[in-house]
Design goal:
With 232 residues, this protein is an alpha+beta fold. The chain is 26% helix and 8% strand. The strands form 3 sheets. The protein has a 3-stranded antiparallel sheet, with no helix packed on it. It has a two-stranded antiparallel ribbon with strand order 2-3. The two termini are 15 Å apart.
């Protein structure tokens, strides 16, 4: 795991006052969880295997790319990120490691760093790199650790897979169901940018839009996860 120092930043969404939010010091996995690691987890906790997974915790695409319950198959690299994982199973995996999923603020805080800067969001080449990844096919099939090592020593925040966060849809939940529906719909049109802090950060808009479209039981072939841990 990489050690992430305490700091502040203004997120694209969620800071209603547009003032910096504080991120306490924590640790984050250097790489996303890969197929081999997830297989070891399933062997210890077989109730999370594909054939035994309950529909309320994962949809029908759960680990659909694997050949069987305990075989990810020759078509999938052992070092490639495990995908088609629901939020419930990602959360369970982290808990069984004595860890947890990172919060959205923690994830965004680490993800805004390039190789040399804690915050590279204003760097045009950095945003172009992220956007170019969105256009590349099947990056989820690549091994972990092939993208750049950022300021914190963390790999693959961009360029490999989307990743679950503990509070993946919290920005768009108001607590009132009628309002939540409007917010979700507005996310994909112009009014979704009303409370944004940087209207030019299209790469971040894509992340927030993707998270806002998810439900905890959903799985997709380009969605993985990594774990985080509090510092004592």
């Amino acid at each position: 795991m990489a050690s992430i120092e305490r700091g502040t930043f203004v997120p694209l969404y969620g800071a209603t006052s547009k003032k910096p939010v504080q991120v306490d010091a924590f640790s984050m996995d250097i790489y996303p969880v890969n197929n081999a690691q997830f297989l070891e987890f399933l062997k210890k906790y077989p109730e999370n295997s594909r054939s035994r997974m309950k529909g309320i915790f994962a949809d029908k695409s759960y680990l659909s790319q694997w050949e069987s319950d305990f075989n990810y198959g020759s078509a999938n690299l052992s070092t490639a990120p495990v995908t088609n994982i629901s939020w419930f199973t990602a959360k369970k995996y982290c808990e069984c490691q004595g860890k947890r999923l990172p919060t959205m603020d923690e994830w965004e805080y680490v993800a805004m760093a390039d190789e040399k800067r804690i915050d590279a969001r204003t760097k045009e080449s950095f945003n172009n790199y992220i956007l170019s990844w969105y256009e590349k096919p099947k990056t989820y099939a690549n091994p972990v650790g092939r993208t750049f090592r950022n300021y914190w020593g963390v790999y693959d925040m961009h360029g490999l897979v989307w990743e679950w966060t503990a509070d993946f849809n919290s920005v768009f939940l108001s607590g009132e169901s009628r309002k939540d529906k409007d917010t979700d719909r507005n996310l994909f049109c112009g009014s979704g940018s009303v409370n944004a802090t940087d209207l030019m950060n299209y790469a971040a808009f894509m992340r927030y839009a993707f998270r806002g479209s998810l439900k905890a039981r959903f799985t997709t072939k380009n969605l993985g996860f990594r774990c985080a841990k509090d510092k004592k």
